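Q: Hi! First time doing this. I have a protein sequence and I read that you can turn it into a structure. Is that right? Here it is:
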Amino acid sequence: MIRFDYQNLLSNPNLLSAIKASRLVDYADRVKDAIAEIDADRRAGILGFYELPEYDVQHILDFVDRIDDRFENMVVLGIGGSALGNKALYSALKTEAGLKRKVYVYDNVDPVYLYEILNDIDLDRTIFNVISKSGTTAETMAAFLIITKILKDKYPSNYQKHLVITTDKEKGFLRQVIQQEGIASFIVPDNVGGRFSVLTDVGLLSSAFAGIDIKALLAGAKAMREQSENADIMLNPPYINGLLHYLYMREGKNISVMMPYSNSLYDLADWYRQLWAESLGKRYDLRGREIYVGQTPVKALGTTDQHSQIQLYTQGPNDKVVTFISVEKFKHDYEIPNLYPDRAEVSYLGGKKLSELLAAERLATEIALCKAGRPNANLIFNEINAHNLGEMIMMYQIQTVFTGKLLKINPLDQPGVEAGKIATYALMGKKGYENQLAEIQDYIQRHR
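A: Yes, that's right. Below is the predicted 3D structure, encoded as structure tokens:
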């Protein structure tokens, strides 16, 4: 299980700027309205991620059982919501769960990065998972075309065995490829946006391939969804955290730092960054008024970034809310030997475990932040496992939508991202974007 400790966000006497508990009452009506809107959206089928704990994953498990035993690698070709969740789950569990198969995620069009992946794998033992709902994502389609050419050249009669495509269930370029070339396929649901899709085929297929217990992931998500239905907001992790972050945004704390004290959980902070930034960073509210809201998510790693960022967090601008992620029990640990018992410089470490030092470092950072009057919270994993990861994923997905409702914006769209996609299509010469290309060329001329 996971636990959420928010005492340093609320009425902490050491934090002069802490949100007072009495202020929560002032927003009771707004919270009630936000919850009602979420309930209405769920009934309308808009928030499909809420229903994923009941998702039947047998088709995924059957596929993993059927594929060639020689496959030991899966390379995910995707970007954003089609990639970050895959990477986060695999990174979190590859060591703690002792995963035997490897998952690589190619989520950038850097050619050297693709070369490194291809140089690291044995193509005979690799299957590629192409993920794009639209089938038009430039980055993913470029990778798909390159990889498919490589596979067709090496395996002209059965290249399809090395490919699986996850896309829209009915339409789009990739669905046509699936039908024409007989490639195995999975579905990106219509009512689950990309950044909320890690608990669909998008994230579950690579997880099941690697050996992650995907049923436990969904069970954890269900447990958190049930917590989110608690009428007492103080016992409702996604709602109390969402409300407190909303109130801190109103106080000018426009940066949200997620700081895992575990290398395994570091990629979860990347997943969170997209979820929080893309969902809440909006120019307009639901009434069309310019509001320019959002909280910039930043990732940090304990203890590494105690030596690079904490100076800024404790003595720089007081514009941040820090969330630690701590782990109580690691599968692997080391005792520090007392090699120099007569030397005070290091003897105090002797006999202690690395996990004890890590926990002490996190608590020390919490204390330092509190002394500096900086709000912080702690999300606690009793251990790193699939159930707990499912809980965290559902917690932050619900929290994100709830916070969007408090802000009176649409947390499900991303118009700023679409503008960049259109410009990319124009620059790369895609048909239908000639007018946009002319505008870009004019922009280039004016800025030379």
